[in-house]
Each structure stands twice: as structure tokens, then as C-alpha cells.
Write a structure and sequence with these properties.
Shape: globular
CATH superfamily of the largest domain: Vaccinia Virus protein VP39
Helix content: 25-40%
Oligomer: single chain
Number of domains: 2
CATH architecture of the largest domain: 3-Layer(aba) Sandwich
Number of strands: 7
Order of helices and strands: HEHEEHEHHHHHHHEHEHE
Strand content: 5-15%
CATH class of the largest domain: Alpha Beta
Strand order of the largest sheet: 3-2-1-4-5-7-6
Length: 303
């Protein structure tokens, strides 16, 4: 029986080509995962090139290229990018890539609690040694907080009934498995949109558990100081919240997307956009890898 792939990276060729890799350059794969992007980068690096692969999930370390002296695995969230580059004596890098999608490994390993396809502990932590689990949030968040999480991070049109269903269920007993959560929220979702809305509920809890949006803010801001002039940033997003943040940041160098102008009205953004519009998967890629369907790639160059 074949072992499931840890992860199949979306838009691989477009992302690697967009980095415009220099053989002797220094690069960062901020979301190492299964090592797909890192493997492609290493294939283009010469003997003097260097690559740092960041991942907060210790499972990803099993995929590290320990026999390649050009590669360094960093067991950390990418929000701490500047700290670890300094630790390794690196001042500036030539390119950074981040694939913000959840690895197939996390969905396919039922014990992690990321998917509603199998009953498992309601965990959802990328780093299993840190922070609250999804069960902790479901157990303790009040109605207002649940509505914020479900509406903001899950983009649910009617988060109130789902929040009410969770609160009603936890009053009867712990909602600490994916199966119990499904049982609790199913009556509150649209039968016609059940699969989509369940996915949105699980996405919302996952983002909250892992502090994903705050981590992305820290990471994006840090890339300005980490990239040398001419260095490139490539980011692959999978939902509108991420994409909007990346788009705004690449437009104006800040999270609001406002572009400052000089006295003559000339834009003062620290970025040159390489992709005016996001690159999306081809029909052939979507057919081969359906999970790539919502991927969007944006690339910018540090001025």
C-alpha cells in the first residue's frame, strides 16, 4: 500500500520561477512541510547556496535534507524569521517563499483533528506542544467570541446559530472530538451547503488555535528587513483573509495596503509587484491535485 504524500505543493513551478533563484543565493522556505518547495530550490542552488526551511510541526523534520550541507531545518513558526536568521549569522536573504496551505499530512492524519472526515480528538494544533486546542476554545469561548471566530476566520454568513449550537451541546457534556463537534453543529448549517460550511467551521477553529493571522502579520512585516534589494517574496494563499493581507502588504509595504506618495505623487512602496494579478492553478493542475483549487500566488521584489 502506498504511503500518502506528506504534501503536494501547489503552483510549484510558478513559485520557484518567480523567486528568480541565484545559484549562490540564500533562501528561506518559511513553510517547509513536506519539503516540496525546498527540494526544487536546492535543485537550482550551487554549492555555495544556502536554504533555511522553517516549520513549527516537529513531524516535518522527518522530511529535512540532513545530508545536504546547504540546508538547515529550523523548528519554529515563521513569525520568528528574523530571530533565527540572526542566530545563524545571516543578515539578508535573496528570496523567501511561504505556502500557507495546511499540509495533506495534517488532514490525512485523523489523530490531529484537522478534518471532519474521521472522529478524533479536537486538537488542530500545528505545534502539538504549545497553546490551546480546538476543544479548549469550544469549551471556553463565550457566544460573542465564537461568533467572531466563526464569522471572521470561517467567513460563515450566519455564525450566530452555529455558536448557539456549540454552547447548547457543551452544556450537556464535553465537545472534545471532531465527531461531537459535527453532531453539535450539523443542525445549524445549511443542508445544501453542509460540506462547505463544515469546512468553514473547522477552518475558523484551526486559524484561531494556531494564531495564523497574527503569525502571518509578523512574518510579512519581517520580510522587509530580511530581504536584500532585488530579493523576492512569493506567497501562496488559500482563503480570502490571507490573500487580502498579502495583497495589501505587497502593494504598500504595510498591512492596510495604503501606498504612501512623495511630494510629486510618486508611490513610495518598498515593493515592485512581479504579479499584478495572482497566479492560479491551471485546470490540469486542479485535476491532478484538487486541493490546489483555491491557491493564489503573489510575488513581489524588494526595492
Amino acid at each position: 500500500m502506498d504511503t500518502p504524500a506528506y504534501h503536494i505543493p501547489a503552483l510549484l513551478a510558478d513559485a520557484i520561477n518567480g523567486l528568480d533563484i541565484k545559484p549562490d543565493g540564500i533562501y528561506v522556505d518559511a513553510t517547509f512541510g513536506g519539503g516540496g518547495h525546498s527540494r526544487a530550490i536546492l535543485a537550482r542552488l550551487g554549492e555555495k547556496g544556502r536554504l533555511f526551511g522553517f516549520d513549527q510541526d516537529i513531524d516535518a523534520k522527518e522530511n529535512a535534507f540532513d545530508d545536504d550541507p546547504r540546508f538547515t531545518f529550523v523548528y519554529s513558526n515563521f513569525r520568528y524569521l528574523p530571530n533565527f536568521l540572526r542566530y545563524h549569522g545571516v543578515e539578508k536573504v535573496d528570496g523567501i517563499i511561504a505556502d500557507l496551505g495546511v499540509s495533506f499530512h495534517h488532514f490525512d492524519d485523523a489523530s490531529r483533528g484537522f478534518s471532519f472526515r474521521a472522529d478524533a480528538p479536537l486538537d488542530m494544533r500545528m505545534n502539538r506542544s504549545a497553546g490551546r486546542t480546538a476543544a479548549d476554545i469550544v469549551a471556553s469561548a463565550d457566544r460573542r467570541e465564537l461568533i467572531r471566530i466563526l464569522g471572521t476566520f470561517g467567513d460563515l454568513k450566519r455564525p450566530g446559530p452555529v455558536a448557539d449550537a456549540i454552547i447548547a451541546a457543551r452544556e450537556k457534556g464535553p465537545v472534545d472530538t471532531t465527531g461531537k463537534l459535527l453532531e453539535a453543529v450539523r443542525p445549524a448549517v445549511s443542508p445544501k451547503q453542509e460540506k462547505r460550511e463544515l469546512a468553514q467551521i473547522f477552518q475558523a477553529l484551526r486559524i484561531e488555535v494556531n494564531g495564523e493571522m497574527r503569525a502571518l502579520e509578523c512574518f510579512l512585516t519581517s520580510t522587509l528587513g530580511a530581504l536584500r534589494p532585488g530579493g523576492r517574496l512569493a506567497v501562496i494563499t488559500y482563503h480570502s483573509l490571507e490573500d487580502r493581507m498579502v495583497k495589501n502588504f505587497m502593494r504598500g509595504g504595510n498591512l492596510s495596503g495604503e501606498v504612501e506618495k512623495d511630494f510629486y505623487g510618486k508611490p513610495l512602496s518598498p515593493w515592485k509587484m512581479i504579479t499584478r494579478s495572482p497566479i492560479v492553478p491551471s485546470e490540469a493542475e486542479i485535476e491532478a491535485n484538487p486541493r490546489s483549487r483555491s491557491a493564489k500566488l503573489r510575488i513581489a521584489e524588494r526595492i
